[in-house]
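Entry for the shared binder. Reason: the reviewer on the internal report wants the predicted structure included alongside the sequence.
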Amino acid sequence: MDADVLGRTDARRGGSSQAIAQRSLTLLIVVDASVIVQVSVAGGTLGPLEAHEMIAPPLLASEVTSILCEMAYRTEIPTEHARRAVMQLDDLPIRFDRPIRLAELAFDIARSLGWAKSYDAEYLALAQLCSAPLITIDERLRRGAGHIVAMPALSQLLV
C-alpha cells in the first residue's frame, strides 16, 4: 500500500492494523526555523519528524532562508550547500498556517515575555491556537517559553 509523504495510507483502500496503528500515532506538530535549518542542511532528512504532520507560521520560509544565507556568508557551510538547502525547503511536507488571531496572540506572548520582537512568539502562538507541541532545538526559546506550550525534544517523538 502506498503512503503519502507523511507516511499515511489512503483509508478508502483499507489497510493493515500496523498502518492503522501508525496513523493513530501521527501528531500535529509546530516546527520552528532552528529545526528546519538542520533538516535542510542535512539534505531534507526528516528523521523522527517524518511520522508527523508539520505546520509552521508563514515566516518560517523567510527565517530559514535568512539563516542559511547568513551561514553561507559566514562560511559555516559552502554557498552551494546553502543554496541546495533553500531549494529543498519547498519539498518539505510543511503546511504553512496563519489562523485568525495569530498576530495578536504572538504580540501578546512577546510582550508578556518581555521580548522586543515577535518572531519566536509566532511559533508559540500557532502551537497554542492549534493545541500542538512546538518542536525546536533553540535552547534559549525552550528556557524562556517552555511554560507557554509543550516543547518535547526531537528524541521524544515517536517514529
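Summary line for the report: Strands lie at 28-31, 53-56, 94-96, 134-135.
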